[in-house]
Structures are given as structure tokens and as C-alpha cells.
Design goal:
By secondary structure, the protein is mainly α. The chain contains four helices and no strands.
Amino acid sequence: MTPIDSPTELRRRGLEVLVRELGYVDAMRFLHQYETGQGDYTRERARFLPPWTVEELIREANQLARPEPPR
């Protein structure tokens, strides 16, 4: 195995292995144990999350889950 010189490549390959072995959700849970983050998510989330109701969120998720019709 060849050493990885680039920090960017090391992070990319590390994430790839974590997701492959743990699945996306558990890989993210694992990483959150070590990344403290910063700021106040509760106050800042309004800047990047749409102001959807639960019903709107479910409708959007269902639309994304539907396969696209063939072209």
C-alpha cells in the first residue's frame, strides 16, 4: 500500500472506507464523535433549511424517492 501524501486525498479515501464499512448514517455518527463543530445550529439553521412544515417535508421526500420517468 502506498502512503497518501495529500490531506485532501486522505480525507476522501477515509470517508469512502467509513461509508463502505459502516454505511452513511453510522459513518456520520462516528465522525460527529470527534468533530466539535462551532456556532449555534438552532439559531443558524434558518439560513440553510427551508421553512417547511412536516407535511411539506414528507411531500418533498416522497417526490425525491420516486424514480424519474424514462426519457
